[in-house]
Design a protein that fits this description.
By secondary structure, the chain is of the alpha/beta class. The protein is built from 12 helices and 12 strands. A hairpin with a 2-residue loop joins β11 and β12. The N and C termini lie far apart (45 Å). The mean pLDDT is 91.
């Protein structure tokens, strides 16, 4: 079996051999544990792509063998940091505008009258200027909820508000306010080249957007010839060109490598710092834990949990990050690799 993959949490520990390509050349070819030992040295550029246990290990100076899985990570942490004295980190809390950017109240929705409801009494609020992540399993209703908020679907009961105004009664609220990145991004492409896709808002804006999303070397290519991650970036660029106040993003990190995810996260925070709001539907738990301000979980069309990101993942035992599963017995509130690494060093100093 030959497998290429960006998300390595589950697949890398099962591999017998790992070949690392860097700038078109083989940078490493060995067993997974050997790769892990080199992450703090010559393979440091690969670190953000690795499973959490390996990333945490690479951020320490432990002499123990490199763990590959969550279970091994737990064992390694308990051996390398027994009886810790420092178990929590200081957290900054953010305040939000009193009027939410989006509010659903008791929303019910179904695609067919005779079919069960997809959304069942859903109520949620998305603060202005926040990165809000909606998570949950397949079929929970996440994409449907996002499309209802964005005005693409109409509930048969309940209210949808944008900035405190009833969006179902004032449909003009959506114009120029909302930008939507769908899960199937190819549906946004209508032109023959990447350049022409981006030139709808003028050539100057197109050049800036291409540079921002690292698309300059692809401008003459047809959109359908791009890789999945490149198509994702192009579609995001088309949405950003219209300067929406609220961005609705369905699985935005799909196909993105770790390097561009960091750039994408910085872009999201630049947008929210400018007062824009991001509503993101995602299965990428690690990305949401690092970069969302608030997270909510949908289960069977209803809201099962909603809280600031650190509390959200700390309170859940099953649907949480690999880092939290590794560290929970010692550092209950650590939800990212960086949290665990900081606490490890705090207890060694």
């Amino acid at each position: 079996i030959v497998l290429t993959e960006h998300r390595l949490e589950d697949v890398l520990p099962a591999a017998d051999r790992v070949v690392v390509l860097h700038h078109g050349k083989v940078a490493a070819d060995s067993a997974p544990r050997e790769i892990g030992r080199a992450l703090s040295g010559e393979l440091s550029f690969l670190r953000d792509s690795m499973p959490s246990a390996m990333r945490i290990y690479a951020g320490t100076d432990s002499a123990l063998p490199c763990p590959l899985t969550v279970r091994e990570g737990k064992q390694w942490l308990q051996q390398s940091c027994p009886a810790p004295k420092v178990t929590t980190l200081p957290r900054e809390s953010r305040t939000w505008d009193s009027t939410p950017a989006v509010r659903l109240r008791d929303v019910f929705f179904t695609y067919e009258k005779q079919q069960p409801d997809v959304l069942r009494g859903l109520s949620l609020e998305v603060p202005q200027g926040a990165v809000f992540a909606l998570l949950g399993g397949n079929g929970a209703g996440k994409s449907t909820a996002m499309q209802v908020c964005a005005g693409l679907l109409r509930p048969y009961r309940g209210s949808v508000e944008l900035f405190g105004r009833n969006a179902r009664r004032e449909k003009k609220l959506y114009a120029g306010t909302v930008g939507v990145l769908p899960q199937q991004v190819r549906t946004l492409f209508t032109e023959k080249t990447v350049a022409r896709e981006l030139e709808a808002a003028g050539k100057d804006r197109a050049a800036q957007t291409a540079a921002l999303l690292q698309l300059e070397h692809l401008l003459v290519k047809p959109p359908y010839d791009l890789s999945g991650g490149e198509q994702q970036r192009l579609a995001l660029g088309k949405v950003l060109l219209h300067d929406p106040q609220i961005l609705f993003l369905d699985e935005p990190t799909k196909g993105m490598d770790s390097a561009f995810k960091s750039r994408f996260a910085a872009l999201l925070h630049r947008l929210t710092d400018a007062g824009k709001t991001v509503f993101m539907v995602s299965h990428d738990v690690e990305f949401c834990a690092r970069h969302a301000d608030l997270c909510a979980m949908l289960f069977d069309g209803m809201l099962a949990a909603c809280a600031e990101t650190n509390r959200f993942f700390s309170d859940l035992t099953f649907y949480t990050t690999a880092a939290n599963r590794i560290a929970r017995s010692l550092f209950a509130q650590a939800i990212t690799d960086e949290d665990v690494i900081r606490l490890w060093h705090a207890n060694k100093s």
